[in-house]
């Protein structure tokens, strides 16, 4: 089996966090999922600063990013990542409720790697996360510098 | 003889005086006057009517070029003198509009027209012409300009209000899209988790309740999605091209294959004319009408769906006719309203947005929609589009 890679989940809603973790668990994708609750925490994690100053080096294999977030929203996180010479290689998947055209256009213009609308139906949600997790954390070869599963 | 000659001359003079006084009256009535400037002596002669037009008593105007300058509004003086200089140097015709300040302090607008006369050597001799009070015309022009400005300002304000309303609508549908879907997803997700973790302890009734919650959440999700697409349908720009309606029907029929599989459907598609319209939107119209026809003929062992058209004054009328369950014609118009349904959800699934979308799209194309039905005797849905003129292409 391929080595499982770390996933950074940026999501503020506790229900969505629980459902996402449950869906990933359902698919036996027991990755090391790091959950951060807003855009500031996400950037702190990726830049290894603030509360994440002491974390080990290495980038997640994929960032699952919600659009609507407290403090700094998902679009701004994406903009900062994709304009950073080092962090721009980290794959970012928008995982959001919004299927508004303006969000799609803005995300792709900023260089998002994929855009997934969360299905209302839980089975659809599980399937979407199964495919997402499988592709980004197992099948896809992430850029050098990503973290493997710890322990 | 002398007497006669004198008498004749007197008559001529009297006639001339009469004619002059008539002219004077006419000039006064028109608030006009004549002027005559002897360039060499600098004398300026004004007719009494011109003095009156400037608010001066007869004979008050001193009759010099300097006195004329004094009459001009200080702000207009420079350009009046410049244009006179221009005529003296190289021109012949003189025409200008300027303001004048009367002894009563009143500002009046004048329009002066005149001609320059030169000697054989080309040196300016005299300039003469007419001058008229155009204050009323200027006031009317000013009033029109002011009204136009007010109108433009109102249009700008109204446009800003409409843009604001549009932005609010955008952010409303954005919130609906994001914030309403999230709790529905949570209901669906946690019901599913509950069903998995507690399946063994639950009796059949409890499991049915969970299924109902699950289905309701999914249905609400579909409603949110369709409401959003309905609202978007009213906002997006129409991208019109010439369309082959038969090709569009074929495409939609292919899209509907999952729903028609295992069914016996006799499709009767007549040759249809080309129309001008937005391909994606008209495709949605056909998709809604054909999928309705497929859906409501489900109880028929042998379904029949007919698509045809006829041309009548300036428009093309298309129809989709089926031999399905039909409806009461008295409710025909309700069908096109948002969330209006004539059938129980357990018999025929649906959100009640499809035909509202059809009506909105057809209206945006300048057409109409209507329907006829007979309970258990089938339904016919009509929509019209403006006739496509081939020479437009």
Provide an overview of this structure.
The complex is a heterodimer of chains A (151) and B (393). Chain A has 151 residues and is an alpha/beta fold. Helices cover 38% and strands 14% of the residues of chain A. Chain A is built from 5 helices and 5 strands, in the order E-H-E-H-E-H-E-H-E-H. The longest helix of chain A is centred in the C-terminal third of the chain and has 18 residues, at 122-139. With 393 residues, chain B is an alpha+beta fold. Helix content of chain B is 50%, strand content 22%. Chain B has helices at residues 2-29, 48-53, 65-71, 74-90, 135-198, 204-235, 245-255, 257-260, 279-296, 354-364; strands at residues 32-38, 43-46, 93-101, 107-118, 124-133, 241-244, 265-269, 274-277, 303-312, 315-322, 369-374, 378-386. In chain B, the strands form 3 sheets. In chain B, strands 2-1-5-4-3 form a 5-stranded antiparallel sheet, with helices on both faces. Chain B has a 5-stranded mixed sheet with strand order 7-9-10-12-11. In chain B, strand 11 and strand 12 (378-386) form a beta hairpin. In chain B, helix 6 (204-235) packs parallel to helix 10. Chain B is elongated, with a radius of gyration of 42 Å.
């Amino acid at each position: 089996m391929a080595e499982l890679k770390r996933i950074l989940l940026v999501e503020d809603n506790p229900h969505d966090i629980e459902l996402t973790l449950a869906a990933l668990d359902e698919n036996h994708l027991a990755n090391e999922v790091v959950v951060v609750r807003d855009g500031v925490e996400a950037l702190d994690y990726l830049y290894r600063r603030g509360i994440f100053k002491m974390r080990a080096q290495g980038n997640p294999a994929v960032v699952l990013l919600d659009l609507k977030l407290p403090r700094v929203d998902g679009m701004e996180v994406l903009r900062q990542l994709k304009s950073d010479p080092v962090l721009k290689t980290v794959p970012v998947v928008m995982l959001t409720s919004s299927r508004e055209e303006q969000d799609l256009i803005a995300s792709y213009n900023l260089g998002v790697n994929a855009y997934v609308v969360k299905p209302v139906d839980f089975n659809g949600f599980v399937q979407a996360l199964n495919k997402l997790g499988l592709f980004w954390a197992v099948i896809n070869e992430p850029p050098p510098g990503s973290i493997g599963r710890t322990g | 003889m002398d007497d006669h000659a004198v008498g004749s001359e007197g008559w001529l003079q009297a006639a001339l005086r009469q004619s002059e006084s008539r002219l004077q009256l006419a000039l006064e009535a028109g608030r006009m006057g004549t002027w005559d400037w002897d360039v060499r002596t600098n004398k300026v002669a004004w007719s009494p009517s011109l003095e009156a037009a400037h608010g001066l008593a007869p004979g008050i105007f001193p009759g010099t070029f300097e006195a004329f300058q004094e009459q001009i509004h200080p702000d207009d003086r420079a350009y009046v003198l410049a244009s006179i200089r221009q005529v003296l140097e190289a021109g012949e015709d003189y025409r200008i509009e300027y303001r004048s300040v009367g002894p009563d302090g009143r500002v009046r607008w004048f329009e002066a027209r005149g001609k320059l006369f030169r000697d054989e050597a080309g040196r300016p001799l005299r300039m003469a012409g007419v001058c008229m009070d155009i204050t009323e015309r200027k006031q009317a022009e000013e009033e029109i300009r002011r009204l136009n400005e007010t109108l433009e300002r109102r249009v700008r304000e109204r446009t800003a209000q409409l843009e604001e309303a549009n932005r609010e609508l955008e952010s409303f549908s954005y919130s609906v899209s994001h914030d309403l879907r999230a709790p529905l997803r949570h209901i669906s997700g946690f019901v599913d988790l509950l069903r998995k973790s507690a399946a063994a302890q639950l009796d059949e009734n409890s499991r049915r309740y969970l299924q109902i919650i699950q289905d309701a959440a999914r249905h609400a999700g579909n409603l949110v999605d369709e409401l959003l697409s309905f609202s978007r349908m009213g906002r997006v720009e129409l991208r019109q091209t010439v369309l082959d309606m038969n090709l569009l029907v074929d495409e939609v029929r292919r899209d509907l294959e999952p729903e028609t599989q295992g069914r016996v459907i006799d499709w009767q598609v007549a040759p249809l004319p080309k129309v001008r319209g937005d391909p994606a939107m008209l495709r949605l119209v056909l998709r809604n009408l054909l999928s309705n026809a497929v859906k409501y003929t489900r109880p028929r062992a042998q379904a029949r769906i007919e698509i045809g058209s006829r041309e009548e004054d300036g428009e093309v009328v298309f129809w989709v006719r089926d031999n399905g369950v039909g409806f009461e014609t008295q409710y025909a118009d309700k069908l096109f309203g948002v969330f209006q349904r004539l059938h129980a959800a357990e018999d025929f699934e649906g959100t009640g947005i499809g035909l509202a979308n059809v009506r909105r799209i057809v209206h945006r194309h300048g057409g109409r929609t209507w329907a006829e039905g007979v309970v258990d005797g089938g339904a016919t849905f009509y929509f019209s589009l403006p006739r496509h003129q081939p020479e437009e292409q």
